[in-house]
Amino acid sequence: MMLRILACAILLFSATVLSQNVATLRKQAALDQEVTTEPIANEITNDLKVSRNYPMQPPIIPHNIRDYQIDLNVNTCLACHSRRKVTNTQATMVSVTHYMDRDGNFLAAVSPRRYFCTQCHVSQTDAAPLVGNSFVDVKELMAVSKNENE
């Protein structure tokens, strides 16, 4: 008897949740249904660095990387950004933290755990945000606080 009541409660709860209009990036399409996607945003390729929004944020890539190869055999990023190449290319050098292993020892080459650049770094685009964001930079909060105290 108790099992039947529990099963009915689960079914009722599931029907209630599934009948709600939950906003998703799939726009109400069923999971087994093909959805046309928005076109890919244009990469911003002006080579101007964008300021970071918070401490330790990985820098955003200020140039096109569409055909870059990053796999076990090749990392195109390091053709310009490795320690040995930056003098000739004038590119920003990979952070020294990328040459450290997990124990803090310095290595001669980029650490395997930092080798796949696009795990953390992304290209700038002119894409509109997919979801809302109420993030406020700490500098802005400090400025507001300072103005209120004056």
UniProtKB/TrEMBL annotation:
Which biological process annotations from GO are given for this protein? anaerobic respiration
Q: What is its main location?
A: periplasm
Recorded family membership: Belongs to the NapB family.
User: What organism is recorded for this protein?
Assistant: Alteromonas aestuariivivens
Taxonomic classification: Bacteria, Pseudomonadati, Pseudomonadota, Gammaproteobacteria, Alteromonadales
What does the entry list as the binding residues for heme c 2? 98, 117, 120-121
Where does it live in the cell?
A: Periplasm
GO CC annotation: periplasmic space
Protein name listed in UniProt? Periplasmic nitrate reductase, electron transfer subunit
Name the InterPro entries on file: Multihaem_cyt_sf, NapB
| Changes after translation | Binds 2 heme C groups per subunit.
Any stretches that span the bilayer, and where are they? none
What are the protein's GO molecular function terms? metal ion binding
Q: Does the keyword Iron apply?
A: yes
Record's keyword terms, sorted: Electron transport, Heme, Iron, Metal-binding, Periplasm, Signal, Transport
The answer to whether the entry has keyword Secreted is: no
Gene3D superfamilies in the cross-refs? Flavocytochrome C3, Chain A (1.10.1130.10)
Alphabetized SUPFAM superfamilies for the sequence: Multiheme cytochromes
Quote the PANTHER family the UniProt record gives.
PERIPLASMIC NITRATE REDUCTASE, ELECTRON TRANSFER SUBUNIT (PTHR38604:SF1)
**Function as written in the Swiss-Prot or TrEMBL entry:** Electron transfer subunit of the periplasmic nitrate reductase complex NapAB. Receives electrons from the membrane-anchored tetraheme c-type NapC protein and transfers these to NapA subunit, thus allowing electron flow between membrane and periplasm. Essential for periplasmic nitrate reduction with nitrate as the terminal electron acceptor.
Q: Fill in the subunit field for this protein.
A: Component of the periplasmic nitrate reductase NapAB complex composed of NapA and NapB.
Q: Which domain of life is it from?
A: Bacteria
Signal peptide location? 1-19
